[in-house]
Design goal:
By secondary structure, the protein is mainly beta. It is built from two helices and nine strands. The strands form three sheets. A four-stranded antiparallel β-sheet has the order 2-1-6-7. A three-stranded antiparallel β-sheet has the order 3-4-5. The protein has a two-stranded antiparallel ribbon with strand order 8-9.
């Protein structure tokens, strides 16, 4: 029997599921990729170590969403390019039209010991700093200066250290052991609001 540590990653299955959901609903699936030497993409379109790729049927040919790689051919400025992205480098998949999708934990940098760099460190232990946190910018909305629209991907171990970005006022909050208390004087009962 296979335990959770020996099972394969759920990331490629979730990518395929969200790709299918996007295409079934007439949305354009985009993938955000954290670029390194293992990613084969046109480097002139990489910004801040990331690239956002349109993987819709209309934008690609020979698309293969495999367990290890996403492979396809696409045109960039009129010239055909072969694109190969390791599934572990995908940090999000979402619909261009409404931004719905899923973000994944940022890949561990090579040489930190958790993934392919385990042999180089010898011990195979994660780095003391933890995985690098790369901001994920929503390329479909806002402008370059929209600092309030940055999402930081955090793994479970890093959640205790997370500092809220807050607004542009520069204030940040530190994690608390107790949940916030409701305002004095009662107030209305909390309710869920359906967003369409």
């Amino acid at each position: 029997m296979i335990n959770a540590l020996e099972s394969s990653s759920t990331r490629p299955y979730l990518i395929r599921a969200l790709y299918e959901w996007c295409t079934d609903n007439g949305f354009t699936p985009y993938v955000a990729v954290q670029v390194d030497d293992t990613v084969q993409v046109p480097r002139e379109y990489v910004k801040n170590g990331e690239i956002v790729l349109n993987i819709s049927f209309d934008a690609t040919s020979s698309l293969k969403l495999g367990n290890d790689f996403i492979e396809f051919k696409a045109r960039f400025a009129g010239s055909a390019r072969e694109i190969i992205v390791p599934v572990g480098r995908v940090i999000a998949i979402y619909a261009r039209e409404n931004g719905q999708g899923m973000a994944f934990p940022a890949p561990v940098p090579a040489g930190s010991g958790a993934e392919g760099g385990a042999a180089s460190t010898g011990a195979g232990a994660p780095s003391p700093q933890g995985p690098a946190r790369m901001p994920l910018r929503d390329a479909s909305r806002g402008t370059e200066g929209d600092a309030g629209k940055i999402v930081h991907l955090v793994t479970g171990e890093d959640a205790d250290e997370m500092v809220d970005v807050g607004d542009d006022s520069g204030s940040s909050s530190e994690p608390h052991d107790e949940p916030p208390r409701p305002p004095a004087g009662g107030g209305s009962r909390p309710s869920l609001k359906r967003v369409k």
